[in-house]
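thought: fold this chain, then report.
action: predict
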Amino acid sequence: MSWPTLIVAGLFEIAWAIGLEYSDGLSEPVPTAATVLALVASMVLLARAIETLPIGTAYAVWTGIGAVGTATLGIVLFDEPATLARGGFIAVIVVGIVGLHSVS
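observation:
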């Protein structure tokens, strides 16, 4: 059950990272509250996951999910550049996440 928990924690990491953009520097009350809730949920779920997963693996996967999701949503939602190089480096992170899962 630790891997699904870690994946959900990573999804909440994406939510709070994207929430930072919508909160306008934490000045908008509703997006700020949602960002803080997502941050807390992400941390609590990460803490649960590391009860049985190695911290190094769990943290790397958690940040990897957050990085891939946030970079992808930056392209989709905020018109950030969608270059071949950027896509390639996002793919490298995905390979790392899959690799860590397969050896853990």
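thought: worth noting. Residues 55-78 form the longest helix (24 residues).
final: tokens above.
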